Amino acid sequence: MSGTPRDMPHPDVADLVLTDVLFTLSDPSRLDIVRRLTEGPLEVAACRPVGGEIPKSTLSHHLKTLREAGVVRNTPHGRQRFISLRHEDLDSRFPGLLTAVLDRPRVEPRD
Question: What is the pTM of this model?
Answer without folding.
Answer: 0.80
